[in-house]
């Protein structure tokens, strides 16, 4: 087996990995880099001649794993793309939304290479998607197969977002496991990953939280209690609460957490405002509630929480109302998104509250805001004047990624002969490289250079 990292930069970007198994070419994921505009946001496919990919396997529908799929399949037209049914349902929404965003950016930012693909190319691309279930072994034509002479793959629940999987690839007695993005712990909705516990020769592993030590005494349950207490304080003071969230994953986890708080009597029926993309994705979460691994399969989020939908047009004039929660995307408060526009109205008001519940890239508007202190002028969008920070800001940690200790323990359980570290910033990769080197004698640890070929077997 040979491995090539096709992302353009080290870090969390346009995740796409080329795996060659005795002349059979497989792409693992086909993401786009949310921090880069234009063609630079897509994977660099030059190491491989067009039309030579035999299969594409998608682990989940976050943009950094599927955002370039229509670009990749344009030059791989007869290539099947394997994913779970839930990932396919979400991917359709995410990719069509990307077209809309790119069309807008073409006008607003003058990016003439946009859109990189159209609604029609998303529909064409979707024709080659093949839905695959968990814990079933398939060959690369999508048929069930136990034949070890064929290259086969098998999906394992990754516990990250709806539909997310890790993938086990097997051929002639050798096996490789790619974690995708993984969470071993239960979240409010998603149940923890169930990955293979042995028999893996080569491991490709995400390292997102390698640079984040777990605070002493931290538990998710404790964090939920702290969050509930803070929400209650906001509501009893008559204030409103803005929470930047990703439309996919974090929105649904947050709504489920608020539902649990309501069941426990900690909050009443509060008006909750969310954006249109979050509604579409929550609809998919509800439709797969009974058929995918998750807690509270009885919960139909939209029916129970009945959120109000705030459109892109309404956000331009909307003023924060009292005793309301605004759970708006994007999670990183990217310019021109609902959370960015709304937060500019909230920031300077001491009666307002802004809570962060997940990861923000340090260079994103949310990342910059999190570093600011009370009274500092904050620039959330360069096209508008800075706003002084006077509202209450709180940070909570409800990550959809495993902490580094759990990932390290997983590696120690598997003890693969080679491990490839991906999907992390340099300090995160460095931590894993050192931690695993100390504990795993005889395991080769690879931090792959971009575009370089590594022989795994
Ligand atoms: Zn993800
Ligand atoms: Zn990711």
How is this structure best described in words?
The protein is an alpha/beta fold and 457 residues long. The protein folds into 2 domains: 2-212 and 400-455, Metallo-beta-lactamase, Chain A, CATH 3.60.15.10; 220-395, Rossmann fold (3-Layer(aba) Sandwich). The chain contains 12 helices and 22 strands. It has helices spanning 63-66, 69-74, 85-109, 119-126, 220-236, 250-263, 276-287, 301-305, 338-346, 365-371, 404-414, 426-439, and strands at residues 2-5, 17-21, 24-28, 55-57, 81-83, 129-131, 137-139, 152-157, 165-171, 174-178, 202-206, 241-244, 272-275, 308-310, 325-328, 353-356, 377-378, 387-388, 392-395, 418-422, 444-446, 453-455. Strands 6-5-4-3-2-1-22 form a 7-stranded mixed β-sheet. The protein binds zinc ion (2 copies). One zinc ion (ZN) is lined by residues 12, 62, 64-65, 181, 423.
Characterize the main sheet. 7 strands, mixed
Rough outline = globular
In angstroms, what is the radius of gyration?
22 Å
Poorly predicted regions = none
Widest beta sheet: strand line-up: 6-5-4-3-2-1-22
What is the count of β-strands?
Answer: 22
How many domains make up the 3D coordinates? 2
The CATH topology name of the largest domain reads Metallo-beta-lactamase, Chain A
Determine the mean pLDDT.
95
Strand content: 15-25%
| Structural class determined from secondary elements | alpha/beta
């Amino acid at each position: 087996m040979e491995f090539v990292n096709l992302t353009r930069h080290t870090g969390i970007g346009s995740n796409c990995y080329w795996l060659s198994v005795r002349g059979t070419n497989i792409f693992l994921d086909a993401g786009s880099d949310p921090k880069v505009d234009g063609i630079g946001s897509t994977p660099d496919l030059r190491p491989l001649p067009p039309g030579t990919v035999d299969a594409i396997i998608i682990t989940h529908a976050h943009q950094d794993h599927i955002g370039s799929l229509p670009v990749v399949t344009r030059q791989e037209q007869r290539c099947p793309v394997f994913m779970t049914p839930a990932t396919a349902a979400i991917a359709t929404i995410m990719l069509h939304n990307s077209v809309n965003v790119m069309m807008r950016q073409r006008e607003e930012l003058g990016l003439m290479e946009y859109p990189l693909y159209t609604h029609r190319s998303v529909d064409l691309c979707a024709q080659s998607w093949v839905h695959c279930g968990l814990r079933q072994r398939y060959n690369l034509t999508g048929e069930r197969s136990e034949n070890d002479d064929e290259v086969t793959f098998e999906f394992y629940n990754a516990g990250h977002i709806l539909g997310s999987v890790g993938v086990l690839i097997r051929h002639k007695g050798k096996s490789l496991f790619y974690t995708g993005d993984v969470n071993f712990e239960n979240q409010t909705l998603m149940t923890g990953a169930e990955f293979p516990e042995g028999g893996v020769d080569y491991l490709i592993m995400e390292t997102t939280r390698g640079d984040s030590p777990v605070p002493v005494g931290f538990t998710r349950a404790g964090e939920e209690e702290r969050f509930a207490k803070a929400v209650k304080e906001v509501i009893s003071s008559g204030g409103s609460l803005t929470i930047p969230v990703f439309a996919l994953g974090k929105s649904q986890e947050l709504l489920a957490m608020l539902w649990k708080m309501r069941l426990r009597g900690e909050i009443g029926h509060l008006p909750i405002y969310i954006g249109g993309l979050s509604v579409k994705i929550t609809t998919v979460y509800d439709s797969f509630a009974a058929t995918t691994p998750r807690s509270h399969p009885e919960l139909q989020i939209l029916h129970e929480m009945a959120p109000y939908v705030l459109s892109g047009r309404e956000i331009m004039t909307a003023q924060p109302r009292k005793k309301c929660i605004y759970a708006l995307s994007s999670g990183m408060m990217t310019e021109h998104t609902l959370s960015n526009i709304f937060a500019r109205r909230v920031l300077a008001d001491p009666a307002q509250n802004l809570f962060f519940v997940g990861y923000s890239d340090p260079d994103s508007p949310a990342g910059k805001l999190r570093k600011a202190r009370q009274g500092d002028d904050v620039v959330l969008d360069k096209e508008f004047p800075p706003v002084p920070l006077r509202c209450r800001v709180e940070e909570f940690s409800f990550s959809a990624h495993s902490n580094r200790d759990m990932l390290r323990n997983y590696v120690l359980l598997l003890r693969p002969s080679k491990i490839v570290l991906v999907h992390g910033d340099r300090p995160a990769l460095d931590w894993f490289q050192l931690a695993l080197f100390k504990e795993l004698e005889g395991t080769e640890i690879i931090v792959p250079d971009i575009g370089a070929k590594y022989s795994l077997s």
